[in-house]
Amino acid sequence: MIWPKAVQDRLKSGHDRELVHAYPYRSACPSTVWGELIEGATEEIFLAGYTNYFLWLEQPAFADMLRRKAASGCRVRFLLGDPDGEVTRHRETVEDVALSVSTRIRVTLENLQRLGPVEGLEARLSSADDAANHVSLSVFRFDLDALVTPHLARLVGHDSPLLHLRRQGEGGMFDRFAEHTEELWGQGTPL
Questions:
Q1: Cβ proximity of 108 and 79 under 8 Å
Q2: Which residues are CB-neighbours of 167 under 8 A, at least 6 positions away?
Q3: What is the pLDDT along the chain (191 residues), one digit of tens a residue?
Q4: In whole angstroms, what is the distance from residue 33 CA to residue 60 CA?
């Protein structure tokens, strides 16, 4: 009643305050945004994309950055799809691209293996029961920021939209996506 509708339409006043930026494609989000969020995280980095492979390609010295983050006390987690799972095979058929889903997952697994054991770094594969829930939504958390990609039908991750969220309070979009990934993590298989 106090604010005219025109002002209300332009003013972020509820949970929409958590939306920092929206990109029509994940690939439209500058790699510098990813780098700044990774570098700025002090407590937690949780990479819950189904493959996470693009980070190894787009972030300079990504392995060194992860080692440094973990050594400084930042918890680093990777949640991946099972490269041999039924959902992965189905998604490969749907996407029908040369760089298959299983290959993209294996790129991440190979790079994690090269890191060797790093205290503070954990990795899991999502459970077979949760794989369909995981493949359709990638959530990348950096302390109180998250980059979220809801995967559109038949499109690879970089062609799907991306939302940059920043937690502003309890029960908002950030918390809902965080709870989703924690549930997937809890049911996952440690590597």
A1: no
A2: 18, 144, 145, 146, 174, 175
A3: 555 555 445 555 555 689 999 999 999 999 999 999 999 999 999 999 999 999 999 999 999 999 999 999 999 999 999 999 999 999 999 888 899 999 999 999 999 999 989 999 999 999 999 999 999 999 999 999 999 999 888 778 788 999 999 999 999 999 999 999 999 999 999 99
A4: 13
Backbone angles phi, psi at 52, to 5 degrees: 60, 10
CB under 8 Å, gap of 24 or more: what pairs does 175-182 form?
Answer: 177/137, 177/139, 177/141, 177/146, 177/148, 178/139, 178/141, 178/146, 180/133, 180/137, 180/139, 181/46, 181/48, 181/79, 181/139, 181/141
Pick the CATH number of 22-190 from 3.30.870.10, 3.40.50.170, 3.30.70.100, 3.30.420.40: 3.30.870.10
User: What are the residues whose beta carbons fall under 8 Å from the beta carbon of 39, sequence distance 6 or more?
Assistant: 65
Q: Enumerate the domain spans of the chain.
A: 22-190
Q: Which tokens go with 164? A: 């940059």
Using CA atoms, how far residue 132 sits from 82, 116, 121, 185, in Å, is 11, 29, 25, 14
